[in-house]
Amino acid sequence: xxxxxxxxxxxxxxxxxxxxxxxxxxxxxxxxxxxxxxxxxxxxxxxxxxxxxxxxxxxxxxxxxxxxxxxxxxxxxxxxxxxxxxxxxxxxxxxxxxxxxxxxxxxxxxxxxxxxxxxxxxxxxxxxxxxxxxxxxxxxxxxxxxxxxxxxxxxxxxxxxxxxxxxxxxxxxxxxxxxxxxxxxxxxxxxxxxxxxxxxxxxxxxxxxxxxxxxxxxxxxxxxxxxxxxxxxxxxxxxxxxxxxxxxxxxxxxxx
Length: 256
Ligand code: PGA
Known about the structure:
The protein is α/β, with parallel strands linked by helices. 39% of the residues lie in helices and 15% in strands. It has nine helices and eight strands. It has an eight-stranded parallel beta barrel, surrounded by five helices. Bound molecules: 2-phosphoglycolic acid. 2-phosphoglycolic acid (PGA) binds next to strand 8.
């Protein structure tokens, strides 16, 4: 049975003390869920202290970003090699990195390659914006982002990569974004699967694909039941420990 991934992306929220309190609360309620891989992505500063507090059988850590060089004159960056032993996953190419920090496909491809080189699982985010959707460009955008992000990834390494589909127009519904319907998501899952198959053939079948965009405890089940979806990337709702645990419980029930 393939795993179901429940990944909480805290973005630039919760300082070190708040992160530690959250984790304490989470670990109190979190049981080992067979088949569910629970991952949280705190801020960079909180990663190291939380890595000392977690029980890796129940919970893993992800970095929200990294730089692809191992060391050097790159002021303000965090190398992927310095995350070794601390984070098991790294989120790469999140739409906020692409749109606010102007990350290019070349940056993203280098980061994916660096993560694989350092045995940290990349979670490669892709997704179209509102205007790209409106202009009927979703298929082209998803194809370009997959080609761009995966161009250094061999067929052999493909099983070490996770893709997260996050339509930009559906991120942060609390700030006015729209909810994607399961049909919207299913249509994009088909585009992504077809593209991966064209690139990698049969090896693409087992590649985990997550959905992200305003997931909450009430809609998590519907997204998890979409064929081809193997987990969720959760922003806002993951900031409240009780909501995050509710989503993990939903995942447990769905995979039963
Ligand atoms: P959201 O964020 O769940 O708050 O929409 C998802 C994400 O940006 O990864």
